Amino acid sequence: MADKTKDTVLADVDKREKQLTSSREAWQKTNIARRKTKFANAELASKDALKEMKKPKSARIGK
Amino acid sequence: MGFGAVHRPHAIAFPGPTYITQFTDVRPNHNYAEFVERSASEPAPQWTGVIAAAPEIGFDSRQLKTILDLCTDQDVAIGYAPSGGTVSLYYRKGVNRGLREDVASLVHDRFDMANNAMLYWESLSAEQRSVAQITAMLKAVSTDGATAPLVHVGSAALAGNVAVSHVYTLGPVSVNGAWVDSVISARLDNNFTFDAEDESGNAWLQYYGIDEHNPKVTIETNDIGVFADYGSGGTALSSLKLYFRKLQHGTLGPVADATAAHVKVTATLGTILVQEGSGNKGRFRVTIALEKPDATTQPFVVDTASAIAV
Questions:
Q1: ipTM of the complex
Q2: What global pTM score does this model have?
Q3: Residue B198 contacts by C-beta under 8 Å, 6 or more apart in sequence?
Q4: Which residue is closest to B294 within chain A, CA to CA?
Q5: What number of H helices and E strands is found in chain A?
Q6: For residue B142, how far is the Cα from the chain centroid?
Q7: How far A52 CA lies from chain B's nearest CA (Å)?
Q8: Fewer CB near the last or first residue (10 Å), C or N of chain B?
């Protein structure tokens, strides 16, 4: 470390920052795709839930 | 002097009759507002008294279906006044050097709320490998401010079967159409505030009602993926299905998912936040503040005869 010049240190920092940025961007892309798959049924589930909420109490207690 | 007997909560009897018998705790409380008065220079009280009281019976129970089914007012409450009938809490007398006095014997005790009770539940909760519990409250509201709304009656026979109706445990949770993984606890808190009113110098509570209802679901999970699922800025809820699984009687585990016997809480609007984490085995807390989907629909509904499906 003692042999490194200021420019070398800054270049290392820059390289690490680029690696992190690249990693974040890759994760964001992966996660968007993952969420699209995981929540593919969200709209259907919402309609189903709203239908459930309109049922009368008598239909929700097994009578 | 002498030691009479130990008394245990036996049942709460509702009009119908419907009985709650599975308690983990019962908390009758008069909530007395005591006062003291003294002459200005005197350190000790010279007049003590009670200016008001608001009796209640708080209780924790594992009898989810019975209590939830009773609550017909927006699935959270029911009032038994002015002619709704009497709600009674029974205590069963124990036997010195023995077990319990016979149910039909007139040696037990009872507390009555005659045409004046309000029942509401405050929370539903369960943890992995634990039995689900509901925390509820009976509020006694005087019919005129002068009549005591919670009356102790001694020498009573017991009502209600000594029975276990049903037992539930933690169930899965579906949020926006997908299961939450690794759920280790779930609870729904109603977070009520109340209007508690009386007038004209009367001592007993005369009016009691729900002022605000701010329901919130809290889920604990070991899945760090919830941060990816809901993001650091939160996500709008479009569907929630929170289940409490009914346990089988006599055999291992819960009743089959396809059987319409489980408890399900359904909601369609709210805010999902991943609030915090803790522990060396990371436990992450997801909260969902629930809203009304429209002017005429409550923030959530409860189905006590539901199958389990995402």
A1: 0.86
A2: 0.94
A3: B52, B142, B145, B204, B205, B206, B207
A4: A50
A5: 2, 0
A6: 22
A7: 7
A8: N
